[in-house]
Amino acid sequence: MDTLDLVGLGSRHNSKVKTYSHGMKQRLGIAQALLHDPELIILDEPTTGLDPQGVKEIRDLIIHLSKSEGKTVFLSSHILSEVELVANRMIIINKGKTVVEGTVSELLNSKILKVTFEVDNVANAKKVLENARWTEKIQSFSQKEIIFQLESDEIGELNKFFVEAGISIKAIVPSRSLEDYFLKITSGTE
């Protein structure tokens, strides 16, 4: 496969680079890095300044290079949600020092979760929570949701508490994010 085709620029091979969009220039840079068929590719902030479609295209390209082309891709990025979607291993560096490293799934497999409870009536839910042990676990409220920081085995207990208090639960959405993990890990390091 031609390198320009690989990065999605095959149809633009006769175009002047000055006519390329920012995303196309990012892909061209990756194509340049691939010219000598390296085993290792280092990308620094490859999605910076791209629109959502461009971000997806670069993300898909990185995944393709890794899985289908057998390349090792080192990705340096501050956009942690993107790292979470493409990386299988990561290192978190804070102030020039490695804080933690491992597989993304291992590092995100902590017991603490951000859990969103979508309820029928937030005002009523707030009232029943006033004197409950769950109050200290609340992160935020919105018009339809209450977000808690819970251990995984507490989700069922809180759901039971709400049901017994007559609060109708529409959805329970647990999540772990790399951003939350990063902030937790780096907040206490010097």
Structure in words:
- By secondary structure, the protein is of the alpha+beta class.
- It has two domains: 3-87, Rossmann fold (3-Layer(aba) Sandwich), CATH 3.40.50.300; 112-184, YebC, transcriptional regulation domain (Alpha-Beta Plaits, 2-Layer Sandwich).
- The chain has eight helices and eight strands; from the N terminus they run H-H-E-H-E-H-E-E-H-E-H-E-E-H-E-H.
- The protein has helices at 3-6, 22-34, 52-67, 80-86, 104-107, 122-129, 154-164, 178-187, and strands at residues 40-44, 72-76, 89-94, 97-103, 112-119, 138-141, 145-151, 169-175.
- The protein has a four-stranded antiparallel β-sheet with strand order 6-7-5-8, with helices on one face. It has a two-stranded parallel sheet with strand order 1-2.
- A hairpin with a 2-residue loop joins strand 3 (89-94) and strand 4 (97-103).
- The chain is elongated, with a radius of gyration of 22 Å.
- The protein starts with a helix and ends with a helix.
- The model has no long low-confidence stretch (mean pLDDT 87).
Helix-strand pattern: HHEHEHEEHEHEEHEH
Mean pLDDT: 87
CATH superfamily of the largest domain: P-loop containing nucleotide triphosphate hydrolases
Find the CATH topology of the largest domain.
Rossmann fold
Total beta strands: 8
Biggest sheet: strands, sense, closure? Answer: 4 strands, antiparallel
What proportion of the residues is helical, as a percent range?
Answer: 25-40%
How many independent structural domains?
Answer: 2
User: Outline, from the CA principal axes?
Assistant: elongated
CATH top-level class of the largest domain? Alpha Beta
